[in-house]
Design brief:
The chain is an alpha+beta fold. 39% of the residues lie in helices and 21% in strands. The protein is elongated and about 105 Å long.
C-alpha cells in the first residue's frame, strides 16, 4: 500500500502543514530512481522514489546530500516557495504549486513514474527522467472525482463469473488498490481465490460491507508496518490489515517515519537478495554443468563396456583367418558357444579388420579408465557444490556475498568459483584444464592470438598450432600444474589446437608444438601470423577436454 492513492492523499494533508511556504534551496538526485528537494532553513528534505516496482514520496528529516555522487536537477524550482500541495481527484499524481508560476507534478505510478516541472497549459519545462525527450511536450491529468458505484460493482460481478472477487474490486474501484481489495475479501470471511461466479447474494452483500468498512477506516488513517519473522517489512498500511495474520505490527504517529521504515527494510531485503543471487546463481550454474558432464561421461562409460566385445571380435577374426577374404562385409563366428555376426570393413584385409577391433578395444578400455576417474572427480565436485549451495541458500538478511566468499574460499576454489578462478574467467581467452591440472589457453581470433602469444605466454610455456591451415594459437601454461606437463597433457593441448582450426572435421590433425621462446612474429606480418622453430609434430584428434572455460 506504499504506492496507494489513499497513502498519497494522506501525505498531501501532512505536506500542507509541514512544507507549505517553504523555499526550495535545491533539487538533486544521488540515485537513478530517487529525487530529493531541499529547503532553506529546514533540515527536512522531500524524497521521491520513482522505481518501476515501487513509487513513493516522504519527508526525510536530517537527510544530507552526497556531493561527490549527486547531480542538480529541475533548476527552475530553485528559490521558489511552495504555495499549496494537492492531489489529483482520482489519480496518483501529486501537485506542488510554486510561487514562481510553475507546478511540480509527481506522477507516482507505473513503470514511467516521474516528477515534472510544468508551465502554463501543462507544458513540460523540465523533468526528473528523460528531460531531453519530454521538454516542450504537454501533459494533462484526469479531473474526474472518485466514484464508488456499488450498483455497477454488482453488475461487474454478475458478468465476470470466472474472475476472482479481488480482481473485480480492483477494476471497479481502482483507488483501493491490490492490498485493500484483498483485505476487503478477507474481512468478508472469503478466500482470496473466490470467484464471482461462486458467490450468492449473501456473499456479495458481505463483500460490499467489507469494502465500506475499509473505506471507513481510511477516513481516519493510522500508519503501520507489518514485519515478517525474518525482520523484513511485509506490508505498509494506513489501516489494520486482517490479511497480515500473525505478522508483528508497528504503529507510527508519523506517516513519513512509517514509510522510511518500510522502504529501508525492503531495501535491505532487496540488497540481500542481490547479494544472495551473486552467490547462489554461479553455484547453481556450476552444479548443473557438473551434472550434465556426469551424465555424458556415464554414457562414455557404457560405451567403454564394449572393450571386451571388441577384443573377442578381434580374436575370433584372427582364429578364422583361413576362411576370411578381403571384401566381406560380415563374418559368422562361434564365441563361447554363441553364434555372432561380426561386421567387417570390406576395403580392409582380414588382418586389418582384426587390428581395427583390437584398436577399438584398446581405445574403449582407455576411455573406460578415464571415465571412471572423471566420474569420481565429478561426483566429489557435485557433492561439494550441493553443500555450498545449501549453505548459500540458508544465508540470512544482512549476510554479504563477500563474507560468504571469504568464509568458504578454499571450498569455492576447489569448484572453480574462488577469487583465483574468477580472475581466470576475466582472461580474454578460452581456458581449459588438462591432465595433471595444467591450464591451456586458446586464442579466439588473429589479434587475440597475437595477444596470447606475445604478451601472456611465458618463454617456457608450450605453444601449439594446427599445421597447414589457420586456427587458434594454443598455450599450455608450463607452471600451472604439478611437475612438468606429461604426454597426455600435450596430446590434449594439441587436440584443442586441432579443434579450433580449419581441420576440425578431420579424423586426425598434424599439430606443431614448440616452446614459446621459439615463436616470433615478423615485423609487418598479419594478425596471428608467426614463425616457429624447433617444432615437433603431434597427430591429434580434434577434441576439447570435458571441463572447458572461456
Amino acid at each position: 500500500m506504499i504506492s496507494n492513492y489513499y497513502t498519497f492523499l494522506f501525505l498531501v494533508s501532512t505536506f500542507n502543514s509541514s512544507i507549505r511556504g517553504r523555499q526550495i534551496r535545491e533539487v538533486y538526485s544521488q540515485d537513478a530512481d530517487e529525487l530529493a528537494i531541499a529547503f532553506h532553513d529546514d533540515p527536512g528534505q522531500l524524497v521521491f522514489l520513482c522505481r518501476p516496482e515501487m513509487s513513493a514520496v516522504y519527508l526525510h528529516e536530517g537527510r544530507s546530500r552526497a556531493r561527490r555522487n549527486s547531480v542538480d536537477l529541475l533548476g527552475g524550482c530553485n528559490g521558489a516557495r511552495v504555495n499549496t500541495v494537492a492531489m489529483s481527484p482520482s489519480d496518483r499524481v501529486m501537485h506542488f504549486s510554486l510561487d514562481n508560476g510553475t507546478t511540480l507534478a509527481a506522477v507516482l505510478y507505473g513503470p514511467r513514474a516521474n516528477v515534472f516541472l510544468l508551465g502554463d497549459a501543462g507544458t513540460i519545462l523540465d523533468s526528473f527522467k528523460n528531460p531531453k525527450k519530454l521538454r516542450g511536450s504537454t501533459i494533462h491529468f484526469a479531473d474526474d472525482g472518485l466514484i464508488y458505484d456499488f450498483t455497477e460493482f454488482r453488475r461487474a460481478c454478475a458478468s465476470s463469473g470466472s474472475r476472482t472477487v479481488g480482481s473485480v474490486i480492483r477494476k471497479s474501484f481502482p483507488a483501493i488498490g491490490g492490498t485493500l481489495a484483498l483485505e476487503s475479501v478477507m474481512r468478508a470471511g472469503a478466500d482470496a481465490s473466490l470467484k464471482t461466479g461462486e458467490m450468492d447474494s449473501a456473499a456479495l452483500s458481505a463483500i460490499e460491507t467489507a469494502i465500506r468498512s475499509v473505506l471507513s477506516d481510511l477516513a481516519t488513517p493510522s500508519p503501520r508496518v507489518y514485519i515478517s519473522p525474518d525482520g523484513v517489512p511485509g506490508f505498509f498500511s494506513l489501516i489494520p490489515l486482517h490479511l497480515a495474520g500473525t505478522l508483528k505490527e508497528e504503529v507510527f504517529s508519523d506517516i513519513n517515519r512509517a514509510i522510511r521504515h518500510f522502504i529501508a527494510g525492503r531495501g535491505a531485503k532487496t540488497e540481500h537478495d542481490r547479494e544472495k543471487h551473486s552467490v547462489v546463481a554461479p553455484l547453481q550454474q556450476q552444479l548443473e554443468k557438473g551434472r550434465r558432464a556426469h551424465r555424458a561421461i556415464q554414457a562414455d562409460a557404457r560405451e567403454a563396456e564394449r572393450a571386451a566385445t571388441y577384443e573377442r571380435f578381434g580374436n575370433a577374426l584372427m582364429a578364422g583367418l583361413p576362411a576370411l577374404t578381403k571384401g566381406l562385409r560380415t563374418f559368422d563366428a562361434d564365441i563361447d558357444g554363441e553364434h555372432v555376426v561380426i561386421p567387417l570393413e570390406p576395403a580392409l584385409s582380414p588382418i586389418q579388420n582384426a587390428q581395427r577391433y583390437f584398436e577399438k578395444a584398446k581405445r574403449a578400455k582407455a576411455a573406460g579408465e578415464e571415465s571412471a576417474r572423471r566420474l569420481g572427480e565429478l561426483a566429489a565436485r557435485i557433492e561439494r557444490l550441493e553443500k555450498l549451495l545449501s549453505k548459500a541458500e540458508q544465508s540470512l538478511p544482512g549476510d554479504r556475498a563477500g563474507k560468504f566468499f571469504n568464509e568458504h574460499s578454499t571450498e569455492l576454489e576447489a569448484v572453480g568459483l574462488g577469487d583465483r578462478s574468477r580472475e581466470k574467467e576475466r582472461l580474454p581467452f578460452r581456458v581449459f584444464k588438462v591432465d595433471g591440472g595444467f591450464e591451456v589457453w586458446a586464442g579466439k581470433n588473429g589479434a587475440n592470438n597475437d595477444l596470447l602469444t606475445l604478451r601472456y605466454a611465458k618463454p617456457d610455456d608450450l605453444w601449439f598450432h594446427a599445421r597447414g591451415g589457420s586456427g587458434s594459437h594454443v598455450v599450455l601454461k608450463a607452471h600451472s600444474g604439478k611437475g612438468d606437463p606429461g604426454k597426455r597433457a600435450c596430446e590434449q593441448a594439441a587436440g584443442i589446437a586441432a579443434y579450433y582450426s580449419k581441420m576440425k572435421t578431420a579424423g586426425t590433425v598434424a599439430v606443431a608444438m614448440t616452446e614459446k621462446r621459439f615463436v616470433r612474429k615478423p615485423r609487418g606480418s598479419p594478425p596471428g601470423s608467426v614463425v616457429i622453430e624447433r617444432e615437433r609434430v603431434i597427430f591429434a584428434q580434434p577434441a576439447l577436454p570435458r571441463e572447458a572455460g572461456g
